Each structure stands twice: as structure tokens, then as C-alpha cells.
């Protein structure tokens, strides 16, 4: 599904937009870019793309820290919240995918055991390392 074609702006409209950008405070432009990246990351939580967007938010904050000093703490908190949400979403997706493989081939009603069939063994989960929960920038 592609986006509908929008009419191209006229030369005057482009010049007015560029003039607006020239006059806009850098702080405001950085906050707007941060907001766009954050919204994209929220929408893509659980996907590798979200990590790229969150890492980009971190890089933007690092590059613009001097200009964003008054809001840096809030922006850092937003990044932490998105990282936490991303890790949680990844865990939920992994659990769903693991659960999909378990339901196949079971015809018995829930709560009823089949007479000749032993109960299924619990699936072997790989042991999770403490580092599995770490955020590693640039890795998806």
C-alpha cells in the first residue's frame, strides 16, 4: 500500500518553508526530530526497527546536548522508557512465537488427558543469560 501522491510544493512555498526553518530555534528543531523518532519507535516496538530509532534518539541527544541541556533529563527518561518497552515487547513476541509451536497436534480437550498418551514434556528453554536483557546499541 503506497501513500497517495501529494502535489509538489511551488517554489514560493519551498522558499517560505526554508525561511521558516532558518528562523526556527535549533532547540525546537531538535525536539521535533526527537519526537518524530520517538513516535516511530513507539509504533515499531518489538521490531528491530525500533532499536534503530531509539539508538538514533540517543545519538541526536548526544550531538545536541549543549542545545538541549534544559530538557536533556526528560529526553533521557523517554529513551530509557522506550528501551524498557522494546525489551518487554521483544520478550512478548518471543513468548508468542514459542507458544505457537506448542499447540500443534493436540486434540484433547483442555483439562482432559488422553488415556494412552503421556503428558507432553515441558519445552526446553535455553537458559537466559543476564546479558540477554542488556541494551546493546546498534544490535537488533
Folded structure, characterized:
- The chain is mostly helical and 140 residues long.
- 56% of the residues lie in helices and 0% in strands.
- The chain contains 4 helices and no strands.
- The model is unreliable at 105-131 (pLDDT under 50).
- The longest helix is centred in the middle third of the chain and has 31 residues, at 72-102.
- It has a domain at 26-95.
- Residues 90-140 are annotated as: Disordered.
Instruction: Please state the CA-atom Rg, rounded to the nearest Å.
Output: 24 Å
Strand count: 0
**Biggest beta sheet summary:** none
Strand content: under 5%
Can you tell me the residue ranges where pLDDT is under 50 for at least 5 consecutive residues? 105-131
Tally of alpha and pi helices: 4
What portion of residues is helical?
A: 55-70%
Measured distance between first and last alpha carbons = 26 Å
Mean pLDDT: 81
Biased composition (Low complexity): 95-116
Region (Disordered): 90-140
Give a brief outline of the structure.
The protein has helices spanning 11-23, 26-43, 48-63, 72-102. The protein is mainly alpha-helical.
Features:
single chain, 140 residues, mainly alpha, 4 helices, 0% strand
Topology:
Layout: H1 11-23, H2 26-43, H3 48-63, H4 72-102
Helix pairs in contact: 2-3, 2-4, 3-4
Biased composition (Low complexity): 95-116
Region (Disordered): 90-140
Amino acid at each position: 500500500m503506497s501513500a497517495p501522491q501529494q502535489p509538489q510544493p511551488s517554489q514560493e512555498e519551498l522558499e517560505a518553508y526554508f525561511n521558516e526553518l532558518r528562523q526556527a530555534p535549533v532547540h525546537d528543531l531538535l525536539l521535533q526530530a526527537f519526537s518524530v523518532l520517538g513516535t516511530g519507535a513507539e509504533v515499531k516496538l518489538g521490531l528491530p526497527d525500533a532499536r534503530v530509532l531509539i539508538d538514533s534518539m540517543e545519538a541526536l541527544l548526544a550531538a545536541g546536548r549543549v542545545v538541549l541541556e534544559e530538557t536533556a533529563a526528560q529526553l533521557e527518561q523517554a529513551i530509557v522508557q522506550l528501551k524498557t518497552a522494546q525489551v518487554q515487547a521483544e520478550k512478548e513476541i518471543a513468548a508468542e512465537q514459542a507458544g505457537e509451536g506448542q499447540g500443534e497436534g493436540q486434540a484433547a480437550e483442555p483439562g482432559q488427558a488422553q488415556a494412552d498418551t503421556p503428558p507432553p514434556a515441558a519445552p526446553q528453554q535455553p537458559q537466559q543469560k543476564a546479558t540477554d536483557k542488556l541494551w546493546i546499541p546498534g544490535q537488533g
